[in-house]
Design goal:
Radius of gyration: 23 Å
Largest sheet: 3 strands, antiparallel
Strand order of the largest sheet: 1-3-2
Structural class: alpha+beta
Shape: elongated
Order of helices and strands: HEHHEEH
Helix content: 40-55%
Oligomer: single chain
Length: 92
């Protein structure tokens, strides 16, 4: 088997080209994964207190991570933004 010797300049060129290919593919690939936000961030988005956000949590799509007593609630950011936009339209 033949041995290849690659100098630092060639390594950098390979790394740069690889990075360019990865970035290009990431731009072309749609990212449909929802963005989740904490209760605190959700409350800030819709303009209510954190305690009120806990009370109205069932009005918005959310997930719970962890066990029932120590778990954390996360809301889907897009759903919060959509409901906020709908509320602003109704108020006009």
């Amino acid at each position: 088997m033949e041995e290849f010797i690659i100098n630092d300049k060639q390594i950098q060129e390979i790394a740069d080209r690889t990075a360019a290919i990865v970035l290009h593919r990431l731009k072309d690939e749609p990212n449909d994964a929802p963005v989740y936000v904490s209760v605190k961030e959700a409350a800030r988005i819709i303009g209510v207190s954190v305690s009120h956000m806990y009370k109205i949590r069932d009005e918005y799509p959310h997930i719970r991570r962890g066990n029932n007593q120590q778990g954390h609630i996360f809301f889907i950011r897009e759903s919060l933004m959509a409901s906020l936009a709908t509320a602003n339209i109704k108020n006009k």
